[in-house]
Amino acid sequence: MKTQDATRDAPSKAPKPAAKPANPQEDFPDLGALFDAHVQREFADHDVKATMKTMIPEPYVYSVPTMTGGFGGRGVRRFYSEHFISQIPKDAKVTPISRTIGKDQVVDELIVSFTHDTQWDFLLPGIPPTRKKIAHEHVWWDQASLLVQVGLLDRANLPVAGVEQARNLLRVAQGHGDHHGEQ
Fold it and tell me: How confident is the prediction for the chain on average, in pLDDT?
């Protein structure tokens, strides 16, 4: 154990230099850029291996409305390989609406639009292609509105919107139209 001689190492009366403020860029990665790269690897490159490199070693992906996803490196890799990236429709397009970045998370509001020409278990597990065009709010999405758009749910007696939900969101995000239910 190291000890100190109190007479020889008495504290100085001089003020200590101010601590160097932490540089947020050094402390935290640019999560927005990291997530953009992640989405690029998924939707443009369709590259499971490259997508996995944008994640921590033991990630999880879980879609609450459909209860699909994977846990841990193996589980997420399997989910991406068999049920997500491999099934992304060729015309899938991601349109960003808004983004909030915290110190350890990104919350994106975006619209995913595509033709339902392949079974895509991430959004519609076990549902064969309906060939319908979809414009769908994502991350926290309305599963009933998605089911209306693919023709599996009749909205006549239900409080669901269908494609109008995404169209209105785009109008509001672009500063056009009434955002209080205009259709």
Answer: 77
In terms of Cα–Cα distance, which of 162, 181, 161 is closest to 171?
A: 181
Q: Does pLDDT of 50 surpass 60?
A: yes
Q: Name the CATH topology of 28-173.
A: Nuclear Transport Factor 2; Chain: A, (3.10.450)
- 16 pLDDT band (50/70/90 cuts)? very low
pTM beyond 0.70, yes or no: no
- How much of the chain is helix, strand and coil, in % rounded to 5? 35, 20, 50
Report the sign of the C-alpha dihedral through residues 80, 82, 85, 89, in that order: negative
Residue 142 · residue 151 · CB < 8 Å? no
Cβ atoms of 42 and 55 closer than 8 Å: no
Domain spans, the chain: 28-173
Give the whole-angstrom CA distance, residue 142 versus residue 95: 17
| Burial class of residue 166 (count of CB atoms within 10 Å of its CB; 0-12, 13-18, 19+) | buried
For the chain, strand residue ranges (E) read 60-63, 68-71, 93-101, 106-115, 133-138
Q: What is the pLDDT of residue 26?
A: 53
Q: What is the mean pLDDT of residues 149-167?
A: 76
